[in-house]
Amino acid sequence: MQKIIQLRLSPQQAADDSAILQQIVEQESIAPATITGFNIIKKSIDARSRTPWINLKLNAYIN
């Protein structure tokens, strides 16, 4: 099953695939073994505040 997921991460988290995977698991409340992969559809930077954020739009493959 494919699911579109949007995440807001720090630049360090956005650069680390395991951190992205962990955020998908937390947001969707599923076991890590059920995620077979993900593709980044869109990546943007939100620098309106003092701390910049990375907005990711992902296509996650579950089961």
Automatic annotation (TrEMBL):
Gene3D superfamilies: 3.30.70.2700. It comes from the Bacteria. This is Uncharacterized protein.
